[in-house]
Amino acid sequence: MKNMSKRPQKMSAENITSFNKLYNEYYDRFVRFANVYVRDAAVAEDIAVDALMYYWENRLSISDESNIPAYILTMIKNKCLNHLRHLHIREEFSENIRQYQEWELGTRIATLEACEPSELFTAEIEQLIQEALSQMPERTRAIFILNRYENKSYKEIAQEMNISFKGVDYHIGKALKILHVHLKDYLPFFYFFIN
């Protein structure tokens, strides 16, 4: 029974010695091989160490007749391929993002070049005026339109609407108050309507 307990320890020491010999003899070669392809010394070292550790952890399932350095080199080759494929996918993804960013930037430039602030300003103000007009009582709206859009005087409007001069003045004032609220951000334009 003593012999059996000593024998696994002796084999384990032999295995460690064998592994150390393999490591010392091939590690630098494995790293150089990996570095030729991955072109990153730290990554090459990680790949070589991973392959050696994988061999060590699975050594009992490997046939004694196997060419161990070739077996480890095959693992290194596969790990390098996986690394390069991962880099390739990452580069494609980065390229797609770069192309999208270029397209998006080009779109912003083209949109800004085509933008006419005066048209935007006019369209926005026109929309605000239409909203204000829609909120006015019908008679106030009609009087305001006759005055500001059809250029009729207070006297002409009073005759047409069959109301007093003061009534026209009241409705125009009411319309201007509603417009003032809607056009508060465009006061210079609002003052254009007052005059």
TrEMBL record:
Keywords: Sigma factor, Transcription, Transcription regulation
SUPFAM superfamilies: Sigma2 domain of RNA polymerase sigma factors (SSF88946), Sigma3 and sigma4 domains of RNA polymerase sigma factors (SSF88659)
Gene Ontology biological process terms from the UniProt entry: DNA-templated transcription initiation
The keyword Transcription regulation belongs to this UniProt entry's keyword annotation: yes
One Pfam match: Sigma70_r2
InterPro entries listed in its UniProt record: RNA_pol_sigma-70-like, RNA_pol_sigma-70_dom, RNA_pol_sigma70_bacteroid, RNA_pol_sigma70_r2, RNA_pol_sigma70_r4_t2, RNA_pol_sigma_r2, RNA_pol_sigma_r3/r4-like, WH-like_DNA-bd_sf
RNA polymerase sigma factor 70 region 4 type domain mapped to chain residues: 127-178
Domain RNA polymerase sigma-70 region: 22-86
Transcription regulation keyword on record: yes
Single GO MF annotation: sigma factor activity
Entry similarity comment: Belongs to the sigma-70 factor family. ECF subfamily.
Name used for this protein in its record: RNA polymerase sigma-70 factor (ECF subfamily)
Organism per entry: Macellibacteroides fermentans
